[in-house]
Every structure is written in C-alpha cells, then in structure tokens.
Design brief:
Ribosomal Protein S5, domain 2, Alpha-Beta Plaits, 2 domains, four-stranded antiparallel β-sheet, 11 helices, eight-stranded mixed β-sheet, single chain, alpha+beta
Length: about 350
C-alpha cells in the first residue's frame, strides 16, 4: 500500500452551446474552467472512509457494504429504473462515488483507504463530473493502476448516470477529463478544438440550486407527448451550435454573442428557465453585453455573459453585484483531470 497520499483534480466546465440538445445526438461545444475539484486518497484503517467536505458528509463502508450497495445500483442501472436510482441518491448522495470505487476495485483489487473530497466548482458547472473523474484517477493510482483518459471519462459518466438518475449526454464527463475546448456529438464522441484566443466571459450565479436531473426528465416527457414540437427545437439548437462553432473559429465575438441569445430564446420554449435566469439575461441585454445564456442543466445554476472587452467585464460584475448576484471570471480551456 502506498505510504504517500495521492491527489487528483479535475476542472469544472462550461457548456457554451448544446446543453440538453446533446442528449439527443446534437452538437455541443464546451470548455474546461479554472475552478477545480481535488480528491485525495490516503492509506488508513480497514474500511473505505469518504469525507465529502463540501457536503459535510463522512461515511465509512466495509468491503461487504461497498460491494452490496454497488451491485444493487448496477442491477437497477442496467434495467434503467431511474426513479429507483433517484431515491437511492436522495438517501445517500455519495452513492455514485461508491459505484466508481467499486468498479475500479472489483476489476483490480480491494484496498482500504481514506478519500477526501473538496471542490471549488460552483454547482451546474461540472461539479459532479469533476468529483467522479478525480475520484477515478485518485483511487486507481492509489491501487497502482494506470487508467487511460477514456476509462476515467467512462467512469465519470457512470457517476453522472447515477447522480442525475438518467442518461446524460456525455459532454460533462468528457470535458472535465480531457480539458481544453471540445466539440461533442454522441455519434462522433469527443473532438478537441484548437482555440487560441480569450473569451471575455462572466459567470453569474442565480443562487438557485441547479436541477439537471429534473430538467432532463422534463424535456424527455415533453418529447414523449409532442415529439414533433420538441424535435423542431432540437434541430434549431443544433443549427445554432454549428454556426457558433464557425464563429468561434473566426474569432467573431459579435456573432458568438448573438448566437448565445438565440440559443437561450430557443431552449427557453421548453420551459426550463427560471425568473432569476431570465433576469440575469435581461440585465445583460440592458447593459450592452454581446450575449448571454444559462449554461448546463438550467432550472437554476449559472448563466454565462459575453462582454465586449475586459473593461466591460468589470462593469458587468459591478452591475450584477448591485442586482444581488455573485459573478466571477475564470480561466477557460485549462488542463483536464490530472495528478498533483
């Protein structure tokens, strides 16, 4: 057993365009951000001890409990009984982490360890995926197992399936693992983008808890009732994302901003926005921002606002503070999951 601690981290993410549409095979464009989650694995004891600092939860599991709980989740997951998975996660938010640890240890070997999790990533900016990817890397390295990036990403995806009680797109686990800028389609997988200019983006927190699992299932139910209406919106969102990619390659900030607004107005038709998210967009428009849209799961969480330049960034941050919102800037396109 290693005598030194293993520290792994993963970045948060911002979905520039494509959220929700990627679930249905459409194009998504995402980037990693400078805020990170850190997972530390240390030797100690006879069991698995998990200390999720942000959640204020500490759990100790024997090998028997870890394996039995994870096998139960695995059976439910295969049957796609997502309501049952949601109940399990509601009772124990650490369930996805158990499953990732189980998957690694069952394939390789069991070893007791202490796992400490601390995240600096706001909700709805890839916080869950970053925890799962970092856990996969820290646990595997503690066991002297070398996982490939794809294996880490796949384990993080399993965590997302359980955490969000559904079938997520795959974009979150991909961007936090690989880092940088990516374009993503289910049929094509991850493709790295070479973006060599800075986007003057501001992140504005609505203060509302993100409800990704609820918004994903809400859209799925709408599509079951009125497939033609929803698919028409999804097709338009895909067109906007393709135009966004072209504008990104041209470094055309004005076009990028207009397309962000377009994406917002189109996806808003599916009724997953909130009064606060709408108000953040309204403030952006009133203060001359180039573009704005919610990012991630909607139903709460953060919006991204595209400023004209560095000067306007700070003007907008001051304005949002006066309106009662916490806003911040962050590096974009940083390194993905890695060891320290």
């Amino acid at each position: 057993m290693p005598t030194r601690k293993i520290i792994a981290s993963s970045p948060g993410k911002v979905i520039l365009v494509g959220e929700h549409a990627v679930v249905y095979g459409k194009l998504g464009i995402a980037a990693s951000i400078g805020k990170r989650c850190f997972v530390t694995a240390l030797p100690g004891g006879r069991d698995i001890l998990i200390d999720a600092i942000n959640l204020g939860i500490k759990k100790k599991l024997s090998k028997e409990v870890l394996y039995s709980v994870s096998r139960k989740i695995e059976k439910i997951k295969k049957k796609q009984c997502f309501d049952e998975i949601a109940k399990i996660c509601e009772l124990d938010p650490l369930s996805p982490i158990y499953f990732i640890i189980f998957r690694i240890m069952y394939k390789h070997k069991y070893k007791p360890m202490r796992i400490r999790i601390r995240s600096h990533i706001p909700k709805n900016l890839g916080s869950s995926s970053a925890v799962f990817a970092s856990t996969a890397l820290a646990v595997s390295k503690f066991l002297n197992v070398d996982l490939k990036k794809k294996e880490i990403s796949d384990l993080a995806y399993d965590g997302d399936v359980i955490a969000h009680a559904g079938t997520p797109s795959g974009i979150d686990n991909s961007i936090v693992t690989y880092g940088g800028f990516i374009k993503y389609k289910k049929s094509e997988g991850v493709k790295k983008l070479k973006i060599n200019f800075k986007l003057p983006l501001i992140f504005v927190d609505s203060g509302e808890t993100a409800k990704t699992s609820k918004t994903v299932s809400h859209i799925r139910r709408q599509r079951e009732k009125n497939r033609e209406f929803v698919d028409d919106i999804l097709d338009k969102l895909n067109e906007i994302s393709m135009e966004f990619l072209n504008a990104l390659n041209r470094k055309d900030l004005g076009a990028l901003g207009k397309l962000m607004f377009q994406y917002y107005y189109e996806l808003r038709k599916l009724k997953i926005s909130t009064k606060k998210l709408d108000h953040i967009i309204k403030v952006a428009i009133e203060n001359g921002a180039l573009g704005a849209k919610p990012t991630g799961g909607w139903g709460g969480g953060c919006c991204i606002v595209l400023a004209r330049d560095a000067k306007q960034i700070f003007e907008l941050i001051k304005m949002y503070k006066r309106k009662g919102y916490n806003s911040f800037i962050s590096k974009i396109g940083v390194e993905g999951t890695r060891l320290h």
